[in-house]
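Slide 14.
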Amino acid sequence: MMKLAGHRGLPELYPENTLAGFAAAIAAGAAGIECDVQFNRQGQAFVVHDDNLLRVAGVNRSIADVDAELATEISVHEAQRFGDQFNPSPLPLLSDFVALIKQHPQVRVYVEIKEESFAWFSRSQALAVVLNALQGLESQVVIISFDAEFLGGVRDASTFPIGWVMHHCEPGNQECAQELAPNFLLCDYKSLNDTTPWSGSWEWFVYDVTEPSLAQDLHSRGIEWMESWDVGALIKALK
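Slide 15: predicted structure.
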């Protein structure tokens, strides 16, 4: 069965990684949603992709130096794309996102822990924050990351399923995947090319799929989970 997830919510129509965008993706019928998490120096977890807020908020400030109080003054409404249409869009805390997904237990949630934050907040510290924030959601949430070391920590300290995000599908990564044994392997569909998806203990999850013909082709190759920048439109087209 093909399963479609909203990449950072529904960013074709809403600012990425905002509560409004996530809610819109769920309302559009997405089977899953994916968010990104960065940490400040104090260990507060924010739902945001970049480690600098310039692109989404127009503020040239590292997330490392943003605390919860300052975050209330920051709007991540992506003015370059949407003008003031979504102003204000508060910078979400991970706790805000958790409150939203608890209202939709049928939706699979992929929480990506961004590796940039490990330059100022250690993996072990991040692990403790994430497991505490997501406590009780083991049947709904998959913790994903490019950082295999962090994922190993998740596996050793919890029962959360894990997903390893790869830059490329290449033999060296296949060996690493066999060693890590994640529940999911994630990559850009373009990196697959004509490669037969590796078999293993994992399910495949590819991004960023927008064309229905491509989705059908990938599904015929055994890939069930696909992430889209415009999940609502893809769902409609496939119907």
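Speaker note: The longest strand covers residues 32-39.
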